[in-house]
Description:
This is DNA topoisomerase. The protein is α+β, with helices and mostly antiparallel strands. The protein contains 21 helices and 24 strands. The protein has a seven-stranded antiparallel sheet with strand order 2-1-7-4-5-6-3. A hairpin with a 5-residue loop joins strand 11 and strand 12. It is globular, with a radius of gyration of 35 Å. The C terminus is likely disordered.
Amino acid sequence: xxxxxCAGFHENEARRRVYRARFSSVTETDILKAMDNLCEPxxxxxxxxxxxxxxxxxxxxxxxxxxTSYFQGKYGNLDSRVISYGPCQxxxxxxxxxxxxxxxxxxPEKFWVLHPYIIHNGYELLLEWERDKLFDQxxxxxxxxxxxEDGMLEVIEISEKQETKGRxxxxxxxxxxxxxxxxxxxxxxxxxxxxERLYTQGFISYPRTESTAYPxxxxxxxxxxxxxxxxxxxxxxxTLLAEGYHRxxxxxxxxxxxPITPMKSATExxxxxxxxxxxxxxxxxxxxxxxxxxxxxxTRVEFSVGGEFFHCIGQNVTVKGFTSVMPWSAVNxxxxxxxxxxxxxxxxxxxxxxxxxxxxxxxxxxxxxxxMEKNGIGTDASxxxxxxxxxxxxxxxxxxxxxxxxxxxxxxxxxxYQCIDPDLCLPDxxxxxxxxxxxxxxxxxxxxxxxxxxxxxxxxxxxxFVKQIENMDALFEAxxxxxxxxxxxxxxxxxxxxxxxxxxxQPSRLYCRTCExxxxxxxxxxxxxxxxxxxxxxxxxxxxxSMHGPEGKSFSLCPYCYNNHPIxxxxxxxxxxxxxxxxxxxxxxxxxxxxxxxxxxxxxxIAQGVCACPECSGTLVLDPVSAxxxxxxxxxxxxxxxxxxGAHRIATTRxxxxxxxxxxxxxDFNKKxxxxxxxxxxxxxxxxxxxxxxxxxxxxxxxxxxxRRGTRGRGMGRGRYRAKGxxxxxxxxPKMSFRDF
Length: 741
């Protein structure tokens, strides 16, 4: 419907009818079939999606903005970049914290179990007690004494039963994500990315589906035949086709797409490791759905001794069926010796096993997905996103075996919601919203009425939450350290001339205890004092920020200018980054020295800018602390230029090249490696026009560049030519970002 609206077709609805194609795999057969069976788009389904988006966005933004602004800057050891809330995300976190609280409040109890052993026809068997376990040691010892005094077991019952382990039904998204996490060790977000890649390459059908039932028209023979020559399972499929395949078990038809199915054969060398493992499971699952059931004989032998009853169980597979291709689902075989009813057997020993009850383990991703599906949290398309969000927000951490362990921040948030309004972190409200959205999709509820009703509910909850926020803050105070008690002394404040504290935990920042001001810094790098130099605009001491890695940029900045843009009319660091830089800016990204146009400061763009960037509209600036591996970097993009290596000193001058208007640089070469013919070490020239210097520079992460006359202007425009292919319009952020975060 977005396409219909943008194309303007809705204006001529009376004369023009619009159709859509529905297909579930990118194969010639499916595409042609879809084009031959076009249908009209369903406005109710589109409106239901719009309702979900509008509710989630407005509710999430309102709570997230308030929480983040309230707690940001209050606590030093709190990762408060974004303290987010989401109608799906928060109940998902609630499941993890609920399990954590069950673990921490669990009190273990001792229990005792009787373990009698017998030796019969060469087998030593441990028998299972019908009472399972007892929590009273004296009573358990009494039963042990009774068994020992009797000493002879009597076989009182032998039963054999043919059991069947049914083949699986079709594979939907939720089950794929659960298996990927529990069996393959691939997280839900990565699993969906791999599945989408396999889909777009035509190897599997559409991976976002809630259905486990195949349509009656599904071509099983054709799908199996496509895999008949696969080197891994081809021989099994050939046998299956020859002997006859079975129709899959009936599953759930959600009315969206068929179950996830392989569409063409592939090998590991074609797909790569992780893609292959996911594709292999999809293929094995599909083959399993059309294979025979697994059949086995279950034998149960019951015994009596000293008035107590015990048993043992044996299992023998008669038909492997689908477990031949899905071995992880195989029945564990256990052979028993031959017994006769009424037979007497001597007890070889009786152990009294002492154990402790154990708490449940932390939720695995697979278990969390099951809980989300059961409680209606998220859809097949969004479950992986919600789990990924609580990990990225540092609310939970993924530990061994894909277990989700909540952090102090995640636990404190949920406890805060529970003491203010438990509904905010319980799945009930979300389940109600999803029910209403399903009614919209069916045309049984009005879109605007549902959205208005839900938003009014959350508006009342938001107002109450704001009034009671101090209850949550009390929990934060108990868990996190105040800003004044955190960090280490680093640089002087330009206002009070007292030292400020550097807080390295995310988001990294400076805190002046005297002025009670917070100054945010660039993220994901190291911060150092820059030779105790001061900014000429505000007297704050300058800092050097260095990005991680051998090719990471280093640049100077004034904490005050970085948070309070002092010069109008030029880009901020934040807007400069939109052209492709991967810098982690932090809140309030304003003006580092490489964007400053101060006419006399030795660290500004005027002094350190050298020439135009060959890749974008930025300027190449001298890295002030890159010696002995001197280099220039672009103040907007990733372009990096390596200058003569091993030089003793490289500096900019106030002279400009008469040919291209670039800044003339001064290079003091090392005596032992100077390229100058007369053995001198000092050389002055333009890196674009001077043949010696130009031959010694190397461009990395950008296009090669050469002398371009007339491309560089003066003042604020210096260095601002555009490489071929770049537009001249204003850069637009493609994302809907919230800069205050």
